[in-house]
Amino acid sequence: MDETPRVVIDCDPGHDDAMAIILAARHAEVLGLTTVAGNIGLDLTTRNALVTTQIMGLDVPVRRGAARPLVAPPRDAAHVHGQSGLDGPTLPHLERSEVGTDAVDWLATAARDNPGMWLIPIGPLTNVALAIRRHPDLLGHLRGVSIMGGGTADKPGNLTSMAEFNIAVDPEAAAVLFEQEVPIRMCGLNVTHQFGATDAEAGDFRALGTATGVFVADLLEHYIGAYERTFGIRRAAIHDPCAVLAVTHPELFEFERRRVHIELTGTHTRGMTVVDRRQPGPGDGPVEVAMAIDADRAMELLVDACAAPAL
Ligand code: BDR
Ligand code: CA
What we know:
This protein has a single domain (6-307), classed as Ribonucleoside hydrolase-like (Inosine-uridine Nucleoside N-ribohydrolase, Chain A), CATH 3.90.245.10. It is globular, with a radius of gyration of 18 Å. 52% of the residues are buried. Helix 1 packs antiparallel against helix 10 and helix 4 (103-113) packs across helix 5 (126-134). The chain is built from 12 helices and 11 strands. By secondary structure, it is an alpha/beta fold. Strand 1 (6-11), helix 1 and strand 2 (29-35) form a beta-alpha-beta unit. 39% of the residues lie in helices and 18% in strands. The structure holds beta-D-ribofuranose and calcium ion (CA). The site of beta-D-ribofuranose (BDR) has 15 residues, from helix 1 and helix 6.
């Protein structure tokens, strides 16, 4: 890594969102968090972003954005993340407040003030699409956009048979981003499912004894249980940290440069990321699609991020 990347994380915490924030705080300069409705409603994703920063002592501004998708009806993932969006830990009394409700406009301000920053969306892409439409210069200031979302066709979806949650909740928003020529790194389900946590890892985090380690252990115990109830396997995919690692530690990944289309009309495939893997030629494109991750090293980095005392 040449220099510490400056990043803004657009998130919907969410268990794995919280872990992504923790990881980013150790390996990037986090300029701010913006929140979006996704795993649960916007009031709770915003509360959960604030409480995550409070537990780790991270001093970054939190701004709320869109309360619902552009076109699609709202959907959440309470079946995985619980009614609070962050079930598991006993959350402390919230002592922090969001600094504003202007997440969409602030994304452009942050990009203009920090040329070369990365935008890391790890929830539905509603805020990102609204910001691109309202501030067309935004993308020109970015080094790139690193998303958790979608996946290659050989991996089933998790909201529908072919579509991943973040894309499927707001496909029109995703299409706005993927129509741009901005550099995009995409960590989809095909790679995030390679990075899993079991009860053994939850025990490793608890053994750290730090506030952040215990928080992540409590998160994992709920999250692994939810995966077992929902998908029948006692191993949870650590999705969102992959999008952070793709910026801070790209050497952990194998990428393919592809053109990616968002399916908006398919009867059974709406919200699918259609990754054109024909080669050579028509499949080549601007999106760096993550195909493999060094999961052992990724887990070491996540554990290390929780090992230090609160910031
Ligand atoms: C994505 O959906 C959400 O439930 C997770 O936080 C992650 O961003 C995985 O499909
Ligand atoms: Ca998320």
